[in-house]
């Protein structure tokens, strides 16, 4: 990129910043959490609404847009040529959790102290729209796109990826691309993601339900059963935080994305440990209290399971439900060199001792792109040029991004090194200054990839 274009690009990006923020705010106001499907809306009305709003924004910016008639995905495209470069982002978000933990309404965006707050600001509405406006800046400067650039908007990333599966069945696949759904500088390896259920008939009178999703460490669970005074005494003894509520005892934890489960505090695990200590138990409670405890690596089951490229296995009990059945919803991030079969075999053997049956819910295979790959080198050069950060190196992640959906694709930003990751947590936010840096990085990356 010559100096004249570079100067003009920076000026254009600055002009577009207010429009970008306004667009993000419009998307945040739509509570696009997955809901019960209907004939018209596969993932609920709100998710369909955010998809249509995003396409409306893109059409207003000058993109060619397409809405999948079944409502699974949409895309916006610009440029000419045979080759297709993809930017993949998702518009669905995880539930807000307890509103008491939010300083503001999670779906009413607020700017405070240089930060934009709201569910989806980091994951992934903010970064996705930043990439769109990065391309818009190039369009306004009449920079030619020698390849077609397509923004693919997903709607089921936080659940089963049925959107991407449908896209891959029906549409053209990009030859390469990136997803703005992680951290800078970029992610060259992603662990395997296994989500599963451990199930059994409930042979007790215990009724219990807690947790919001597989991939979020549960930050609270309310116990309404017997022996609540004994439970409170035991929680105090164990040093576990709790609150007394009208309905029962609320055990408190700390929410965190499952890929970084060790940074959270799992309220379900803590309740199970305390319940067993006071003599209230079941198959799932015994399994958690004996085999998992508070270990986010599940070392008793898997041993020291890690590799050099992607680090340790991560294990998260995301949900528990004791009704007619006992069900645990579990999320495991598996190192790239470890097979799913090895993990399933060990887990099934241990769970079977408690009468719990293994049932696969979802599986996303790991990805690994060598650091000398053209895509890695190009994106790293752009990142270093904009940020002047030559110390940060490509990293591996336990996250599961749309980079797995196509070949030659990586997660690229938008969170800068050293910044707090707040996705899936209360008071999710993005730093506006960082967002504007990402805007420039994405503009220059798109320029390079479409040459």
Automatic annotation (TrEMBL):
Single Gene Ontology MF annotation: dipeptidase activity
InterPro entries from the UniProt entry: ArgE/DapE_CS, Bact_exopeptidase_dim_dom, M20A_pepV-rel, Peptidase_M20, Peptidase_M20_dimer, Peptidase_M20A
Signal peptide: none
GO biological process, one term: proteolysis
PROSITE patterns, A to Z: ARGE_DAPE_CPG2_1 (PS00758), ARGE_DAPE_CPG2_2 (PS00759)
Family matches, as Pfam families: M20_dimer, Peptidase_M20
Name of the protein described by the UniProt record: Putative dipeptidase
Keywords: Dipeptidase, Hydrolase, Metal-binding, Metalloprotease, Protease, Zinc
SUPFAM superfamilies according to UniProt: Bacterial exopeptidase dimerisation domain (SSF55031), Zn-dependent exopeptidases (SSF53187)
Gene3D superfamilies reported in the protein's UniProt record: 3.30.70.360, Zn peptidases
Stored PANTHER family: ACETYLORNITHINE DEACETYLASE, N-ACETYL-L-CITRULLINE DEACETYLASE
Similarity-based family: Belongs to the peptidase M20A family.
Record EC number: 3.4.13.-
